[in-house]
TrEMBL record:
It holds the Pfam family Thioredoxin. This is Thioredoxin. Keywords: Disulfide bond. SUPFAM superfamilies: Thioredoxin-like. The lineage of its organism: Eukaryota, Metazoa, Ecdysozoa, Arthropoda, Hexapoda. It comes from the Eukaryota. Belongs to the thioredoxin family. Residues 1-110 form the Thioredoxin domain. InterPro entries: Thioredoxin, Thioredoxin-like_sf, Thioredoxin_CS, Thioredoxin_domain. The keyword Transmembrane helix does not apply.
């Protein structure tokens, strides 16, 4: 298992450099310790993203990053946004099934044609 794919975000600057300016597409998982569905979704996301060499997962704790929560208009957790080339290309809120996560990963993994 490659742990370098999981990015922990420690503030806005780090978010900018590791997510918005990343060469790889990044799936950002806004989660909270007190959020039960988050404890189901986060490990599932890790598991599904692992096999993809070129997609990273960033985990943002909403309690510590109010500014990012505000910027991305996160109204509920878990919330997931997909960022590619500095743009949000997709997002969903709540506990979703594996198919939805896999579709999101496929969408990010497409090579530009």
């Amino acid at each position: 298992m490659k742990l370098n794919k999981i990015i922990s975000i420690d503030g806005n600057n780090e978010f900018l450099s590791k997510v918005m300016n990343s060469d790889n597409p990044v799936i950002v998982n806004f989660h909270a310790e007190w959020c039960e569905p988050c404890h189901i979704l986060t490990p599932k996301m890790k598991e599904l993203i692992e096999p993809n060499e070129n997609i990273d997962l960033a985990i943002v704790d909403v309690e510590s990053h109010a500014e990012l929560v505000h910027t991305f208009e996160v109204k509920a957790v878990p919330a997931v946004i997909a960022v590619k080339n500095g743009l949000v290309v997709d997002k969903f809120i709540g506990l979703v099934d594996a198919d939805m996560i896999e579709n999101l990963i496929k969408k990010l993994d497409k090579k530009p044609t």
